[in-house]
Design brief:
This protein has about 240 residues and is α/β, with parallel strands linked by helices. It is built from 8 helices and 9 strands. The protein has a single domain, classed as Rossmann fold (3-Layer(aba) Sandwich), CATH 3.40.50. Keywords: Methyltransferase, Nucleus, S-adenosyl-L-methionine, Transferase.
């Protein structure tokens, strides 16, 4: 999770980021390899906000879960950029029968197996892969949860990944993106090799992926010094 807010930038991602796409991804992988496999590590030193984050996510997600027309079934969920399984443990496993995790850092996934405890038996797959390369199984997931990780994808790779996620949804399935949002343009973070996009750019990428935003909220009660965080439900 990148929390640093460097202010405003009107730069487009393509203008500053992709001098070397390979380097962009390699630097991010190296950054996370040096981060301790703890909740505080996953949250960039802001471990204290974990409960606020989870509670906000749960209220958001429960609007869509249930039986009947338009409702998302509590079958199988995918946790993207899962880290040690913080979201899987506290949000997804309590609501879904089974969960898969995908993360680029093997050490985090290894830690998840112990961190998740007894309930971790309901995790079916641990995928070690960057999302730019990850191919989710078609028609498998009721919810695909993507939190604090889209900044590690280029615009094109994010669009392509969202397209693959769309194909991976079951009927009435849902993609949820929860992430930092810039006030204007694209703000790069050289420390963890990521970017923060504004909402207008994010909406354009979502539309190009053939998806619609069916609901959107801003996470409340986070510290003022970090980015605003928005939650988007996509179908």
């Amino acid at each position: 999770m990148s929390t640093r807010n460097y202010g405003r930038s009107s730069e487009r991602m393509e203008d500053h980021l992709i001098e070397n796409e390979t380097s962009f991804y390699v630097k991010a992988e190296q950054y996370w390899k040096d981060i301790p496999p703890t909740v505080d590590g996953m949250l960039g030193g802001y471990g204290s906000i974990s409960s606020i984050d989870i509670n906000g996510s749960k209220k958001f997600l429960q609007k869509f879960l249930g039986e009947g027309k338009g409702k998302t079934r509590p079958g199988c969920a995918l946790d993207c950029g899962a880290g040690i399984g913080r979201i899987t443990k506290r949000l997804l496993l309590p609501l879904f029968r089974t969960v898969d995790l995908v993360d680029v850092t093997q050490e985090f996934l290894d830690k998840a197996r112990s961190y998740l405890g007894e309930e971790g038996k309901r995790v079916e797959n641990y995928f070690c892969c960057g999302l730019q390369d990850f191919q989710p199984q078609p028609d498998r997931y009721d919810v695909i949860w993507i939190q604090w990780v889209i900044g590690h994808l280029t615009d094109d790779h994010l669009e392509q990944f969202l397209r693959r996620c769309r194909s991976a949804l079951r009927p009435e399935g849902l993609i949820v993106v929860k992430d930092n949002v810039a006030y204007e343009g694209v703000v790069p973070d050289e420390v963890d090799s990521s970017v923060c996009r504004d909402l207008s750019l994010l909406r354009r990428i979502v539309a190009r992926a053939g998806l619609s935003i069916i609901h959107q909220e801003q996470q409340q009660n986070f510290p003022e010094e970090i980015y605003q965080v928005h939650i988007l439900a996509l179908r």
